[in-house]
Design goal:
heterodimer, A: 242 residues, alpha+beta, 6-stranded antiparallel beta sheet, B: 171 residues, mainly alpha
Amino acid sequence: MSDDRSLDVARWLDGEMTPDEVAAFEAEMDGDPALRAQIEDWQGNDAALRAAFAEQPVPDALVALVDNHQAFKRNENVVDLAAAKVEREARKPRQMDWRWVGAIAASLVVAVGIGTQLDLAGSRNIDPVTIALAETPSGVSVAMAKGDQLTPTLTVPVRDGYCREFRLEGPSGPRDGLACQTGKDGWQVKRIEPGVQSGGDGYQQVGGADHPAFDAIYRDLGASDPLDPASEKAAITKRWKK
Amino acid sequence: METERLRQVRDDIVAFLPRLRRFCLTLTHSSDGGDDLTQATVLRALDRIEQWEAGTRLDSWMYRIARNIHIDGIRSAQTRGVTVDIDALADVSGDDGRQVVESRSDLAAASEALARLPEEQRSLIALVVIDGRSYREAAEILEIPIGTVMSRIARARAAIATHVNHAGGLA
């Protein structure tokens, strides 16, 4: 890939193009499979980095340092960072549990509790739930923690965007969800329903695939037929822009 | 007696700590190093809080402090060698299912590729790709021209892709 082309790919991925440049570049992309493959490659790496460096809970000692920094400088030992380090070492094997479980729990509680959008941090796709919804093909699981995983299962075009059904499996049991991205909004979780185990080969939704709660949302949003894998891949590459 | 402004700054710093800590972890590539850098950054910021101009972004100012401390550390470490703790970043959980395993290896391969980048490119990936900052904001934080941001971020992504694909990670 030429240097100029690489710059364009980076600027497109980072939202640094003008609308005219975006339109021209996406037209170019549509006619150039090699360019598209390169974009998907870089996009996948970006997603992996965001997932690997998802925000984690901050040790109490660091928070205490902010409130007590003068005393800390006077060596009054108000913040025992050495003890905090020992504590951190002891917790190390569970770090990823907090990172993933914490992030997903917070996302789902907020999304379901107050019906707000999932893009919690106000910046692009930094929580694993959003990454899974925005960047993962159906059928591919995103590892959350020991046994926890989120799997998009279906992508459905709607009037002003897309919806995705997903399955969430973890210690609190299986759940099935529907999230949609319409207009300029980010991904929003519309419904979370309890899932049921179907005898050993996975989970299925309560009431089967035609969940009534999902149907009502689909009707409101003007859903059409689900995407096949190739169309879904194209939608991911175009970052869900129609 | 603490002023209202200082109380507000402290609250803002606490709210910013998860992102600052993640940035420091990205730069240092080790849990201990990341926390040590976070701590040093917080202390220096609070010591020099009068230098921060109210109305400008506190987070950008603290990112710049963190990066300066980190670069100073690299310079002083160059004479005694540096340890890169890649394993600390590869402990992604998830232990059943082939695709889950592949996801885990994707994360580890991308993290390892990031660790191999020169510091100047790693800082940019941390700010733009991981933290979602604009090129202009990254240019201001790193005190480099925006054209340099553009070319470095493209080179960094190309290097990551080469490493990941070579390692058999992301296809």
